[in-house]
Amino acid sequence: MKFEILGSGCANCEKLYALTAEVVRELGLDDAEVVKVQDYPTIMRYGVMATPALAVDGKVVLSGRVPGKAEVMSAVTTALAERG
Questions:
Q1: CATH number of the domain residue 47 falls in
Q2: Model's pTM, two decimal places?
């Protein structure tokens, strides 16, 4: 799985990156990749108008704010379930 943190690298983007990495570790997703995407043309291709945003396997699941850990966990587990 690939988790992309979309944003400029601001403090909120860093918080979302840290939360996502923590959730990925807790779920034991050893093969998962957590990356920062700071390239504005790429962010725009996702249709994101407010950052930070979290995309899982190319699908934006959260955007415009820093969610709580429980919400990130829920987004990740939902993506896992959809993946099969």
A1: 3.40.30.10
A2: 0.93
